[in-house]
TrEMBL record:
This is Helix-hairpin-helix protein. Keywords: Membrane, Transmembrane, Transmembrane helix. GO terms for biological process: protein secretion by the type II secretion system. The chain crosses the membrane at residues 12-31. One of its GO terms (cellular component) is type II protein secretion system complex. It comes from Winogradskyella arenosi. InterPro entries: Endo/Exo/Phosphatase_dom_1, RuvA_2-like.
Length: 291
């Protein structure tokens, strides 16, 4: 081993010279402008990438947030209330209030009923959208009320105006109707030659709530119904049944199948047992059927 570490003077000078050359070369590379500019450029690129990733992350977070559109607070469901940040007891208070067939007509009334905080109300109220007649009634003064208000003494059939003869001006006087709803009523009436068949068809007019329909029927009723073809439910074929509103071929097939199993229907209410039958439209459908 000793022979490996014994060098002559010339060899030692060569080794030192080699070591010095290597160290000098390393120093030159480290402090050279090329090395510094490359490092700075790479650092700037990394920071730019980080900023871009952060921006994309923020956009993705905003896109994943539930979007809130204008809505009527009277119809807030449990899920909708949860998304809006309401507590369970606050949602329950609203549902209990609505169960009494009463309506929320302002943001302040909504807070009084649900007891939501001011901060939560401030985030929700901008999206509240109440019916047109509510907003119109707020703007009216006490001396500017419609003629047809709820009367303690119900009008007789003779005193009521024929709904198929009523003018838009007459309909507008009903509390809760206004210009837009009266236009929709006339538009629906004019869709058919002869107008309405029955008072129940008012439920087919878009935007008419049960309360508004009740107000209308206190002063109007169908006295001259349009003529329609009434079908015998126990003998009608499928092609006849599909002429009835809201009955398509699938429902017609199910009606005939149920009729065969029952050996005929005993009541129009038996249609509620038919698979796929539009139960919410049965009162309209019953106008076109008989036993």
């Amino acid at each position: 081993m000793k022979s490996h570490f014994q060098f002559s003077k010339q060899q030692r000078n060569g080794i030192l010279l080699l070591i010095g050359f290597i160290l000098g070369l390393q120093a030159l590379l480290w402090w050279s402008p090329f090395h510094k500019s490359e490092t700075v450029e790479q650092s700037d690129q990394i920071e730019a990438f980080i900023r871009e990733i952060d921006a994309l992350r923020k956009v993705e977070i905003e896109n994943n947030k539930p979007k809130i559109y204008p809505f009527n607070p009277n119809y807030i469901t449990d899920y909708k209330g949860y998304v809006l940040g309401m507590r369970i007891e606050e949602i329950d208070r609203l549902h209990e209030f609505r169960a009494t067939d009463r309506w929320v007509n302002s943001a302040q009334e909504f807070q009084n009923i649900t007891l939501v905080s001011d901060s939560l109300l401030a985030t929700m109220a901008p999206y509240f959208k109440f019916p047109d007649w509510v907003n119109t009634s707020k703007a009216k003064t006490k001396n500017d009320k419609p003629y047809y208000l709820t009367s303690k003494t119900p009008k007789t059939y003779a005193q009521k105006i024929d709904l198929n003869m009523a003018t838009q001006a007459q309909l507008e006087k009903v509390y809760g109707v206004g210009k837009k709803r009266s236009e929709r009523i006339l538009k629906y009436r004019n869709k058919y030659d002869g107008g309405f068949v029955s008072d129940i068809e008012l439920s087919e007019v878009w935007g008419l709530t049960d309360d508004v329909i009740t107000q209308i029927l206190q002063h109007f009723t169908v006295k001259t119904p349009r003529a329609i073809t009434v079908i015998n439910l126990n003998t009608a074929e499928r092609d006849q049944l599909v002429t009835v509103p809201y009955i398509d071929y699938e429902v017609a097939f199910n009606i005939i199948e149920e009729r065969t199993l029952r050996d005929g229907f005993n009541s129009l209410e038996d249609l509620l047992r038919v698979e796929g039958f539009p139960k919410e439209k049965i009162e309209i459908i019953k106008l076109y059927l008989q036993l």
